[in-house]
Design brief:
Elements lengths: L2 H8 L6 H8 L4 H32 L3 H19 L15 H11 L3 H31 L4 H29 L1 H25 L5 H12 L1 H15 L4 H25 L6 H22 L15
GO molecular function: transmembrane transporter activity
Pfam families: MFS_1
Keywords: Cell membrane, Membrane, Transmembrane, Transmembrane helix
């Protein structure tokens, strides 16, 4: 089971910086959405592919091969970075010390909309990684599902993400990314609450977990791409810093979510259900910040102000 979070994390290593600048070069938000949506969907699906890749590696090699694979992925990433050109013109490149960069990140958190976008995606990723960390025990150990069936159940979440991503692609021009993101967070929160109730009362057996988990993870198609596209589109002058902040919050929330599942393990799926429910609640509350008016003096009048 330990291979699942590790392999999931390895497939999540997609930098946001180049995407941020690429989106800044496209002035209309409608043109930004296809690029951001595709990249963010790939980033969201990657952690879910990790367990399947880890399982395939174990079929042909030992568990040590997983870590050699991780090392190979890291080296390939470094090699790719060496050939990746810098698209930002030299006059616009920041050479500020790291201490100043930390101050800028703190300044970003003072803006309601930026915090709303980042928090909506960050909390959701906490729930996603709780799903990755908790389902092996909940399905295989607690409900005695075979590893093969577990792979099918896990893969169903990927199908759900692909479906909602296509729905989002068709609706975003009509309803807007913010509205779809808020709808996704509401759905994730409701699915998380149902999951926690089912896990606590043991209602529905295996399907009592499978259905709400599928609904929760499927909300990725509405939340992830729209939250990042909204943050970058609303504050293009700080796109690089905003993308770094969002990426940090996603990783940090994922670490916390998976750690909480392990810390409160009690031999039942309840800790996983509780963490996912709290993540869904946090996501929907942060999404409400996007719809709320910006307080005066906190950057409402100048969203692109540095």
């Amino acid at each position: 089971m330990a291979r699942r979070p590790v392999s999931a994390a390895s497939l999540r290593q997609v930098p946001l910086g180049p995407l941020a600048h690429r989106l800044r070069e496209q002035p209309e938000r409608g043109r930004r959405m296809p690029v951001g949506r595709v990249v963010e969907t790939v980033m969201a699906i990657a952690p879910l592919l990790g367990p399947s890749v880890g399982g395939l590696i174990l079929h042909v090699a030992s568990w040590r091969a997983i870590f050699w694979t991780l090392a190979g992925v890291g080296l390939a990433t470094l090699a790719a970075l060496r050939g990746l050109p810098e698209t930002l013109p030299p006059p616009q490149r920041s050479r500020e010390p790291l201490r100043r960069a930390r101050i800028r990140y703190a300044e970003l958190l003072r803006h309601r909309r930026r915090l709303g976008y980042a928090g909506a995606g960050g909390f959701f990723y906490g729930g996603m990684y709780a799903y990755i960390a908790g389902t092996p025990f909940a399905y295989i150990t607690y409900h005695h599902v075979s590893p093969q069936v577990y792979g099918l159940l896990f893969g169903a979440g990927i199908v759900g993400i692909m479906v909602t991503n296509q729905i989002n692609a068709r609706l975003v021009a009509r309803f807007g990314g913010d509205r779809l993101m808020r709808a996704g967070t509401v759905g994730a929160a409701l699915a998380g609450a149902l999951l926690a109730l089912d896990a606590w009362a043991d209602w529905g057996g295996l399907m009592g977990l499978v259905l709400p988990l599928f609904l929760f993870i499927s909300a990725t198609g509405f939340i992830v791409a729209n939250s990042i596209a909204g943050a970058l589109g609303s504050f293009p002058a700080r796109a690089g810093s905003v993308s770094a902040l969002i990426g940090s919050l996603q990783y940090g929330s994922g670490i916390v979510g998976s750690a909480l599942v392990g810390a409160f393990a009690n031999g039942t799926p309840w800790p996983m259900g509780c963490v996912i429910a709290l993540a869904g609640l946090g996501s929907v509350l942060c999404a409400r910040l996007v719809a709320s008016p910006e307080p005066s003096g906190i950057g409402a009048a100048r969203p692109d102000a540095p």
